[in-house]
Fold each of these.
Amino acid sequence: MPGSQTRSRARDRTNVLNRPEFMSLNQPSRREHSAGEGRAGGPRRPVLRQQSQQDDTGVRGSRDPSEGPQTADGNPKEATRWPEQDCMLLNPTFRGIAINSLLAIDISLSKRLGMCVGAHGPGAPLRSMVTLLALTGHALPWIFGTLICLWRSNTLAGQEVLVNLLLALILDLMTVAGMQKLVKRRGPWDFPPGFLDCIAMDMYSFPAAHASRAAMVSKFLLNHLVLAVPLRILLYLWAFLVGVSRVLLGKHHISDVGCGFALGFLHFSLVESVWLDSTMCQTLLSIGSLQWTPLV
């Protein structure tokens, strides 16, 4: 009857077990299905099933266990991911967003300030002067210049200052090279290091070795030399321009130069805290010149 058919259809719609996610509850179990097949099909089916199980066992045994679990199609399953990992990727923290934003701004500004990059850039006419300014903060001129001045010096006070300056330069060189090797951050334009940079172990961008050295040397000279006010201002200006020149040449980011300045002041404070007196400096000089006689 039409009324009874309509009521049965409505009952089927309202039944929860008719939903797709609950359809497996209405299906007969595999055990009952296999028992029914065994009664209807005779004794040949279990033999075939046993043979198929043996074949499947052989295939599983020959499969490489390092491939991981596989699906019914034979394709390896993907590694299970926990919901917490997905939430961490999809919902980053405020700290991560802030750090990524600052890094993006740093890279963008550093590339815009690289006006002396290449021979056809907007700052190409100033490239030679900027390169010469950056060379004044290189490690080799300062180390060799300090050695020459130490060789020509005849006063104990001058030798004391020069020996401590030489140790400060070596400390700055080794510390910056170690940090660059540890961080391995490339420059904004990812240029390969030059010949002089390879000799001074200035291979990467962070921190800026020239900025660190300029800040340390300027602070050292201002603390141990009596200079007029214009010269003191020029010394500070020189240290700042050395760091800026590396950004203009596309060698460093702005953050690399800032961290280099901070590291240079830290090196100066460390050298001042372990300052070598005149006696120790004369001992080191005698060892270096192979004229040291150990005390008996």
Amino acid sequence: MASTIQKQKLFLSFPHYAVIGASTDRSKFGTKVLQWYIQRNRPVTPVHPSNDELEGIKTIRSLTDLPNPTETSVSIITPAKITINLLKQIEELSIPAVWCQPGATDVACVQYIKDNGMSDRVLFEGECILRDGDGALQSML
């Protein structure tokens, strides 16, 4: 299995990013993750089922609306009962890398990741882009 830093570098190596779990509430971690990408000038698309715009960026409704899913890393900040279905979509769309923020997975999600050979491309063991992302970016310089 790939190391955490290898998975973080893989995740950050793609040209596009999507965030699932952001909202209009700036105190929530989903929005903080979206802001992390914006502050670092990363091309990011928020995914939201009903809001048309978050943090001044046009949203898409679903992962299936991504224009380049095979070139997009996805950050997930949702409850595990939602994450499990997102993981299935990610597999179907051949999305190359996923960062599940702490609290976004449970035993069923972890089992799905392992059973479907996704362990080398999904961060799911408590890694946090807000805490670990800048260090991973620095290691890529």
